[in-house]
Design brief:
Strand content: 15-25%
Mean pLDDT: 88
Strand order of the largest sheet: 1-2-4-3-5-6-7-8
Largest sheet: 8 strands, mixed
CATH topology: Rossmann fold
Shape: globular
Order of helices and strands: EEEHEHHEHEEHEH
CATH superfamily: Alpha/Beta hydrolase fold, catalytic domain
CATH architecture: 3-Layer(aba) Sandwich
Number of domains: 1
Structural class: alpha/beta
Number of helices: 6
Distance between the termini: 15 Å
Length: 233
Amino acid sequence: MNSWLLGRGNFASDVRQSSVYFESDGLRLHAYTYCRGDSVGKPALIVCHGRTPESLELSGIARKIAEYGFFALNLEGRGRGKSEGGEQELWNEQGYLRDVMAAVDFTLGLDVDRQRVAIIGQSLGSGTAIIAAAHEPRLKACVALHPYSDYAFSTEPRPGDPDVRRPVDYVAQIAPRPLLIIAGEKDETLPVAGAHELYDAAGDPKRLLIVQDGTHSIEDTEVYALGWLLTNV
């Protein structure tokens, strides 16, 4: 299979969508899971949304990768969807990073293949995914879609917390696990320069894909991310 030319059309599916709950900072968080059959022995993907109000913007890739035999967990960070908490805590107090790490622990506590667990983040969720992968060696691969390298959130991290404003300071720690960075050539929300900065700072193995005429839309990049994950996880 050419992993970069996967079809994007819908096809018959027995993927089951379910709801799961777990805690982060005493908050009850919700996530949707996608899987064909049970999760026993399956590779897993943890999905991190961006800052847009739509917390399930990556549900398409979560469902699609489940078609290919993965277990996918699509997190709703605090203040989003069915999760408790306030959205202001999601970014300004770095609560989202703690939510993502709780999602990692929850997923690794299941009966998935713990040697094949990856993470993907979109837009401002990409920085969280990068930092989570940098600090969690049990994550075996990372994908950053439409990422930033340095972003001016309004408050500083708590003492001892990683600085989610600057994933460029942490991306090198992902190596030697594989990293994919995808950006749109015409992204006006998070300019493509950030993707180049992350790539230059990262260790090997790494890949940078700039989608010609691509924007900040997930539809411009998800097919490439899916193909890479099926090859590298």
